[in-house]
Structure prediction request, 917 residues.
Amino acid sequence: MTDTAGNALEVVDLRIDRVREGRLEAIVSGVNLAVARGESVGIVGESGSGKSMTARAITGLLPRGLSASGEIRYRNRNLLDLTERAWRGVRGTEIGLILQDPFTMLNPVLRCASILGESLRTQRRLDRNARRAEVLRRLAEVGIHDPAAADRYPFQLSGGMRQRVGIAAALARDPEILIADEPSTALDVTTQRETLSLIKQIQATRGMGLVLITHDLRVAFAMCDRIYVLYAGTVVEVGKPAELDAEPLHPYTQGLLLSEPPLDHRVATMFSIPGAVPNPDAVTNRCPFVDRCQWATEICSNGPVSLSTIEGDRQSACVRLPAIRAELAAVRRQAVAGAAPRQPDRLTSRLIDVRAVSKEFVHSGRTTHRALDEVSLSVGENECVGLVGESGSGKTTLARLLVGLERASAGTITIDGVDATDWSALGRADLRKLRGSVQIIFQDPYSSLDPMRSIGWTIAEAITTRSRRARNVGQRVADLLSEVGLPQSYAELRPVALSGGMRQRVAIARALATEPRLLVCDEPVSALDVSVQAQILNLIRRLHVDRGLGYLFITHDLSIVRQVSDYLYVMHRGRVVESGPTEQVLDGPKDPYTVDLLKSVPRADQSWLTSSPPGHVASSGALTRKE
Amino acid sequence: MSAVIERHLDLTRHDVRSRRRRLGLVVSICFLFVGAVVVMAIFGPLLAPQDPQAQHLALVSADPSSAHWLGTDALGRDVFSRVIVGARTAFFGPLVIALGSFTLGNVLGLLAGYHGGRVDALIMRWVDLMWSIPTLLVVIVVAGAIGASYWWAVALLVILTVPFDTRVVRGATLEQVPRPYVEAAKTLGVPGRWIVVRHIWPNISSIAIANTFLVFASSLVALAGLSFLGLGVSPGTPDWGLMLSENETLLFANPIATIVPGVMIALTATAMNLVGDWLDESLAGRGATR
Prediction:
């Protein structure tokens, strides 16, 4: 294939394989994409879709044991043929890379000025003063105007600031194409918007091509001119953001769109795609989405599928599209239909009553950090309460106080009539009562189950811990598993065999073993893929209805809190800044922080990025770390 | 990085693991060698072709021959038989040291790592104190005070090795304690000792077990050194360390008599170290320590 005019970078029939047990296993197959100068292209997919590997192949950074074939055309060369030595002239100079994790991306023993200094072009030798001036100019370009930042170590900077330094380093050699691999995923929502609008602004002024890799369709819609939706290693749909948003032409794209709950209204049931992302190698001979698609028929499993042009620039890999197009649209209309707002009944008895609780952490005996500052909050019997805040707001500390993993420095906590301020002072009967009242679901399902124990063992332990003489433990384990939607045979498995969503279900089953009346859910879905998040949220909502289980739902995501809570607390830097019925708070926020938070939630149009002047360091991007 | 890479790394690690689990040639040889030493340690006197204590004064410092495969020492004792019988002190002492310090070190390390605070401070200050004492000096002083004895040396070495195990186990425990699976057990009300025994220990056992093999190897060398200095086994006992020092004078008459015990010490220690490394690698896939 020849270079199409205007295309700076062209990926043709890219295939990435992993060598395993003497066999090649495809993890990406048949990916075609093109980036023109000044264009931004989005690659959207969940974990396992191969999006990061595609980015790595383009930058020549594939991990060992992986091989790429096909063509990556750039300036009349096939980048896949380059030697590592030749790559050094391309990487950074012609193609820049921004990585996801601002916490590990920068060398912790170098000051920011040294990190940037070594990234600058080596051809031009600069004396010390000129180099310093250049570093400061580069930092100013990414919105860091304080020269003192150049002399700080990465760990002294907040996550947003680190990401800015990372961007400055990626831009240091003035690349023509910038690859951004989940540049904002590890950041708070307010910081995320600042970072993304900064990238967008720099791209526009420099006229660079941008490849943005993200799992968030809304982010891609706001940032990009063209979107490639990747699923299990193949592109399933290509289109312009406005067109995709108006009418997705692949069941997966639609599912992904619907899996993001809306911010502005409550839906009757949250849409979720059943099952989990398959192994790319297992689905090379059929439509990769066939197992999770409600419209799948026999022809979907007959042979590999490929993109075909639908209209204009739009391409879809759905072979049944003409037949199901009207139905897709109907399902979408139905799924976003609103439900009546629910009025919380605050008069019910208070199961949890937190009064003026403060928590201070002492670091190395000297400095104290105030994680909670006179927080008051209550949760009633059978009530769904949301708690929203960014990292550092103290929301997780509060959750840990409620289950006795930390002890409050001041204030009182009453749970079910028991004074739970200091768990270590409680007697056996009170402890038993508290544990039967409140249980917790942790954020990370990958480490909240003992890797050495089977699922059944873990749940059985919870049952026998609750009552020593429990009978029919095996039967109760099976009941709990089926209650959280897992087959009973899973009791034999170790956690390593389960996906993140399944593990979170097991964690919920374990918590239910003590028959609690309230679950503290600490970001239970933030580590999960978008398409399975709703499965867990629906499960929690169903338990509320079936068991009368109340919950305190802690999250950073306002769209989720809109769906799951009736009453809402907003936390910022250890304080509750606003509270009230969820609809009331989200529709008419009073506190400036809540307003800011609502503005930062990704929206599918470009006004999201431009609604506040980018390039300045706002409150959340403070120079020093909050923690 | 995204989960794709993690998953990939997991899979490659799995590959590495399954490759390691198949015994390599070197590890197989090590296992065979350690097995042979174990057999000699248990059945030594039955296997030895001659009485290791019998003196043939007419045939001192003889070269290897068909009657005496490794020749004889200065008192005319059969070196080959003494090497076989000597495996007993070379194996059982270090075994007791390794098991003793494994037990005590794991208990103390888990206590310190899990409870933290004062318990941790107390145990770790004791560990620091023990580390500041020169091992050899203590053994020499004790041997001077109550007379040299093999089992006294073993007991002392147990006490002096415990801090090493304690420190390793405490470090691994500290890593596990803040993990959500431990905290989940706490919020369920699982008693602390069960959390330690049923959750934390299985997850760090690969480190503890592999560490014990290293302790075995180092205490084998330490005990041999003490015997060499006359602070271990009583004179006349067939022991590799003691043979090394007794036969030193025969270096020109019958060099085999002093080289073979030395080589046995080195090989046994090396084999144990390699087996320990192999165990560490093949067990590392288990539990939360990876």
Summary: The CA atoms of residues 168 and 456 of chain A lie 50 Å apart. The mean pLDDT of chain A is 85. Chain A has 21 helices and 22 strands. The first strand of chain A starts at residue 7 and ends at 20.
